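Practice set, problem 2.
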Amino acid sequence: MPSKQDVHIDKILTNMSVKYVQDASAYIAGKVFPMVPVSKQSGKFFKYAKEDWFRDDASKRAMGTESVGGDYEIEQDFYYAERYAFHKNVYDEERANSDDPLSPDADATAFVTDKLLLNKENNWAREFFVSGKWGTDVDGAESSGAGQAAYWDDYDASDPIKDISDYSTVIAEVTGKQPNTLVIGRRVYNALKNHPDILDRIIYSQKGVVTADLIAELFDVERILVANAIQNVANKGQEAQMQYILGNNALLCYTAGSPGLRTASAGYTFTWTGLMGSAAWGGRINRIPNPLLGIGTERIEAEVCYDMKIVAPDMGVFFNNIVQGV
């Protein structure tokens, strides 16, 4: 086994991995919540109790008397940036026999980075794209009612424009923040861009073509994030079973453009940049000699450290199975 001294944190491959992350448009897990770079793997942060800030406590003040005063509560919460890793061995024979445009080290870097992006997307989906996590849950149904909305791909019964407007008001009324982000699975996007109500509203737009940006403008949100990432859920050696990672759901929420003091957000992603050689997204690429598998063999290992956390659940509305799909 190589010692710690043998492990080389490869800056060039790390930079290549960072570029790959930035270009991976299919994944949304790193885009929903703002990233908070942290120097320590674990730590605490503070949350103000919103009730104290939105209560009307001020009153008239008579001459010679004290003003009415008050205070606000502060809660503590904690993060812990878990470490995730994946590797691929690169053999000396591969380098010697590779022809352009193949590049074993670059290909291995892209491969291990994509594995971590795929894993992060799944982690985000399991933690945040499910019922029971947010302030309000809405189930797709045959007709709209209490806690239900007609399936958005049932064009006769549904009214997604009204649904988003109504539940945006729900968030704004309890938080003072107008939701600015809608995260949707690919099938949900397909249903929306073909919905007659939406087509009627934007058919005469300048572009004349339904896009996520136009739907966002119609829904009065700043952005719509369409989850296009897919995965193979079959085991190695079995016939591939490809499917979208994020299902037939939607999440309406408010997220801050960037982290800051006294800055509200539905969630934050804490990335541990204090680990030697880590980039802003909390990742690094290690090059590890592995001569037991042959002279010149090296292990290209990607490692990332993060903790994705819901900070304000009342800033989110989750639409569960909002389309029936196929």
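Problem 2, part (b): a different protein.
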Amino acid sequence: MVAPGLLWHALEDDEVVGRADVLRRPDGRTFVAVDAWHADVGAELVETVIRAVPEDLYSTVGEDDAVQLALLGLAGFAEVRREDEYVVPVVAGDSTPAGCTLV
């Protein structure tokens, strides 16, 4: 089992040029997030996390983020599902739009 909040930093000349962090969500799934200034650094961070975390890994990426999609795809990640997020303004006393339920 992975410890919560694992974090890696990639250094170049003692400067941080990328980071990856791993988080276990309440549903038990383990997610990785990578932020790197160069594609090769991002790829190395992802591979390091894959080797260090012996569990299934997930990530969330915007469908318009071609760099992250390519990075994770090259590391063997596959699309599991897609989600849409909506912002619905709600004012006290307004009725809920047809077909929607607010919880």
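Answer key, part (b): The first strand starts at residue 6 and ends at 12. The two ends are 32 Å apart (CA to CA).
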